[in-house]
């Protein structure tokens, strides 16, 4: 947002998307 008041009012949107079932919370490195 370009205005600080808009940024203050912003709330995150958490979505669960299909297609990935593995837990990634312990991943520390990613190699392609």
UniProtKB/TrEMBL annotation:
InterPro entries: Adenylosuccinate_synth_dom3 (IPR042111). This is Adenylosuccinate synthase. It comes from marine sediment metagenome.
């Amino acid at each position: 947002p370009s205005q600080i008041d808009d940024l203050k009012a912003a709330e995150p949107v958490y979505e669960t998307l299909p297609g990935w079932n593995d837990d990634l919370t312990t991943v520390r490195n990613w190699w392609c």
